[in-house]
Design a protein that fits this description.
With 558 residues, the protein is of the alpha+beta class. The protein has 14 helices and 11 strands. The longest helix is centred in the C-terminal third of the chain and has 132 residues. The protein is rod-shaped and about 200 Å long. Strand 2 and strand 3 form a beta hairpin. The protein is 56% helix and 16% strand.
Amino acid sequence: MLSDIYPSQGSFSDSVLSAVDLSIKDYYFTDDGDSYDKHYFVINVRVGSLSFNVDRSYVDFVEFDRRLRKCFPDSAVPTLPLDAANRLQQLITREAAILLDKKRVSGGGGSGGVSGSPAKTFVSANDVSTLPSEIRRSTAKNIFKIPVSSTEIMRQYVDSLTYYLSDITCHHELLTSDLLQVFLDEEIISMFNDVIPPVLTVYDLLLLNSPVNQTIVHRLEEHMFQLPAESMIVWKFFTAQYDIGFSVEMEGMSRLPLTRFNAHEKPICGALETSLPTAAKLVWNNTYAKLYAKQLTWAVRVVHKEQFLEAKQRAMECYKEKKRFEHQRSMLRLSSCRQATMISRVMHGDITMELYEESFDMALKLTEARLESLQQSNAVLLKDLGKAEIRLNEVENVAEHLQDSKARVSNTLTTSVQELEELRAENADLHGAIVELQDQLRSVLDLEKYCQESLHRMATMKNDVIELAGHLRELFAKFRDEYVSGSDYFDRKENQLQDILTATAADGDDDGSAALEERLKQFIADLLDDSQDKNDAWYKLINQFGLAIEKASSIRDL
């Protein structure tokens, strides 16, 4: 069953499963638009989410319709809604017949070139792709020129051509035909030039419009090239038949050793770079061949490295464009076969190949998504790696500093141990000194206590001296009554004693006692000098007072 061959839509991408939808999106003309081949219709091709545009001229539609009717004579090919379609088809058919007759007359010879050489080996800007003979001749004769009497309005065909293309997609044999695939191929220039151009490599881009040389190599073919600094030499060559040896020398030194290449099977390309000015010698070697000389075609160019990198970038863009065209072609073919199978219940094309292409496409998409994810992860990892390297350098620097610090700490520790021993010895000495100081402190405390007691005794003695002075005043009062005749004398001495006591009170406690004693001693000495009779009671009492004061003074001095 078809459901077994084509899985349900949920298993595949929309671009594979959806029907082919064709419509005319726009119209334009080139130059002055005086011929039919200068009027173009932009066909929009939609296959699910995949959408692209193909430009086809008025004449392309005519040629496409002519070929369809020739290949499918029994099919109901829709009528092409172009007024000049029949006339142009007749002109194209006549020109094709004339070309065929000329080929028969000339024996079917080719257009020249080397027999057996690889196709499309060198590409030039003016040789994008060789047009068929009938198109070159038709352009020269202007058979596609629009008559002056024509009243066609090209833009009015936009809707009718959309219906025409939609009708074609309703016929399964037309939908899956190679003609429709070619007509809707964006990479194909025209229906008269349905050759898919090869992808341009970096060597094709660099050698574009470079001189192409041809020579017969019997034994050796050598060529010298001067290379400036920071430059590259690029080469490309092929042979008509058989292989050939090739080597490259720079300044007498082999940069590419002699190697035999199968240059008759595919072109051989290569490049060498140099940073200094030098000379390069390219050598094609056929000395090993005994029977055949080699017909060699080659091209060489010296470019700067910047030119090579720019060409490499353009080549990558060309490759991506080529892959996009291949993807469009594959999806259009697969969707057309699916849609045709659903319409007719007839399996079209190689289903195994289609399913393989579909699974390969899905796997490719998954791989591309995975690759993009890995690239992002790689970018993050590279960024983290850079940070880790910076951090590692910092850690290594810190480790070096730590090693230095460790050595300094070790030296300091050794010194500290010695100092600790010295400190311990000093501590022992200090401990002994502290013990001695403690003993001295106790002695000082004892001395302080003794001094305080002495001060107390001195204060007591001062009071005693003051008390003696009071008794002396009482003694003056007593003897004044007994010696009336000397009352003035006693009044004068009593006043003098009062002055002594008053002056002593003003001196304070620190030196008052000593001053009082000295004053009293002098006072008593004056009294004893004034007394005439030493046996007198007055003299004896005064003398006892003097002795008492002397005793108090001697105690204070002690």
